Structure formats: structure tokens, C-alpha cells
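Exercise 7.
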Amino acid sequence: MAALSPAALSDARILAAYIIFLASYVVFALGKFPGLKIDRTGAAIIGAVGMVAFRIVQPGQAVRYINFQTIVLLFSMMLIVGNLHLVGFFEWNAEAVLRRLKPHQLLPAVIFTCGCLSAFFVNDIVCLVMVPFVLSITKKMQLQPLPYLLAVATASNIGSVATITGNPQNMLIGSFSGIHYRDFVVHLGPVALVGLCIDWGVLHWVHMRNVRMTVEDRRAIPLPPLDLSKLTKPVIVASAVVVGFFFGVDPAMMAALGAALLLITRTLEPQRLYKEVDWGLLVFFVGLFLIVGGAENAGITTRLLDIAQHWNLQRTWVFTITVAGLCNVVNNVPAVMLLKTMVPGFGDPHKAWLLLAMASTLAGNLTITGSVANIIVVESAKPEVEIGFSDYVRAGAPITILTLLVGWAWVTWVG
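Solution. The predicted structure, written as C-alpha cells, is:
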């Protein structure tokens, strides 16, 4: 892609680029533009149109700024995971684990089930499915649902750090870094595993250490009935896709093949599957590619690189803290989209990409708005359970600090 140089742009266009870039990232940080009903997706669309309208990104070359490998991988995984959702795959997994356990083992079961599922499938869907499942079980058992709901949110974030397909920002990093799926798992899988153990320890200490299960509470966990008649084909296809990832097949191509196979069906109505796709997120990604492309053309990212060198972001601990802080200000996907332009210039880009994936994901556990998965859990739990800011941070803050510390140490010295 032949990017324009800042010298090729007039002062007016450069000024427009700065205004569009800053205004867009203000909305990414606040969630909406002050005084207007413009959300993050709307801001990405408006910003992208602005970059093209002011010729900061040339109309004829706009498509070149979009990384279609990321878009195809994200869209295909949405179709695969959506299909699994509709046929009850996630509930079946949860039931397969929980039917063998006692109520006092429910917390670790929820944590490791959500974590493992999120490692291979997009964590947002795991949260969407597990919240009503957890609410149903805790209600029947007369248990306080808050720690189990927090377990769904935090474990889904932590588990998703393990693979390229765990969350949208990892898909973005996988496409730009060229790191193979298996390599990604080898380096960040241990971080996810230790992180889930930390998650269990913190949630137990904060919410469960004074809870005593009675003899009556130790009966079998009551599970909702499931119809598994349509499960076979989606599970076989999804399993083949994951195996293909490990064998080094291009993730976007492998996921696209799996999604195409699942669309060949006599039982599932296509419109139901299309509703499982987060179209807003796809548009958000496209808009972000154009906004960041315009920022590169206007020299904004070069200035940011100069600042990064001044702050010495090549120190792994500085970079980890910066990524975590930025992700909690502007959300993880916009932060990764911005930082991706800096990483190739680092002394060890491979390690920097892994740190970026680790920190941008684990930082999402700090507050409710830290990741989309958290927001899904909080909103899905209403009106039965209200999860307040302090309720979340009380557990989220120590989980985030401890997991980031472990992740930084592992990637820096071991991984």
C-alpha cells in the first residue's frame, strides 16, 4: 500500500486529520460524543468518511487500508460461534462439566469452563450464553449470583488471551504480526492458565471465603434440559477449524471454510444465524482502519512514535502499563489499532506483539467498561442482578494487577 507522505498534504488537510482523529478517539473513550447520540461504531463511520472526504485517504485507495484478513477471520468466527450458540453447544459444555460436580465446586467450574471456551471461540458469545445459564443454576440453588457472574466476565477475558481467535483484538494482532496460531498458544496459553487460577483465588477470597455450604447444598447441581439433536455437524466443523489452526492453515481461510460449510444446512434458518453476527463491530473495524490510515498519512502516528521513544516504551514493563492504561481509556480495539503502527519499529517486535495481546486483553478486567464482555455480563444480568461499579472493581482490580504482573513476567523472561 502506497501511503501518502505528510508533505503531500496541505496544512488544512493535516489539521482536519488531527480533528477527525482526536474527535473519534474521544468517542472511543467516552462511549458517545458529548451532547450527541454518536456511539463508537458511529464515530468510526463518521471518522472514516471524514478521512476520505478531506482526501487524507484517497477515495480510490481507501480499500487498501482495510486489512481484509482480519475482517474475514472475525466475520467467519462470528458465523461459526453463532451456529454453535444456536444449537446449544456452550450449554452442553457447561452441563458436561457441571453434572459431575458438587455446588461448592461451582465457582472454579464456571471459571475454567468460560476460560477454556473463550480461548477458542470469541469471548463475547461465551458471556452471552453463560449469564442466563449461571442465573438459572444459582437461583435454583439459592446462591448469591454475583461472584459467579463476575467469574463469567473475568474468566472469559483471561481465557481469551490464549489464542488468536479468543477476542477481536487478538485477531487484529494475529493478522498484522504474522504469529502462527500454535506459536501464539505456546507463548500466551500458560498466562491464561495461571490467570484463571488467580481469578479463582481472588473471587473466592473476596466473595466466598466466609460462605459455608450446608449438607443440603451439596446435592447435585440442577441443570436445565437441552436439545442436542442438531449438535453433531457444528461440533465436527468447529473442531476441524481449530485443528486446522494448530496445523498452520491460515486462520482467516480456515475459519471461512468452516463458516461456509455451516451455511450448507437443511435445518437452520440462515436469518437466525445472521442475527448472531455483530455487524456493528465489523463496521467499527473497517472505520478504524481508515481512521488510523489517515492518521498515518498525516504524520500523527509518526509523532506518537516520537513520544513513544521519549517514554522508552521498548521497556517491557513501561509498554505493558501503557497498553493497559490506554485500553481502559479508549477501549482495547482502538488502542491496539493505534499501537500496531509502533510495534514493528521495536527491537523485538515478536515479544512486543505478545505483550500487546496480553496487556490489551487482561486490562479489560479492571472496570465494567474495560471490555465488551464485561458490559454483556452486566446488561444480561439485569434486572435480576445489578452489578455496580464498586462491585466489579473490588474483584476486578486485584485480578487485573496480578494477571498483568504474571503475563509481563512470563512474556519478558520465559515466553
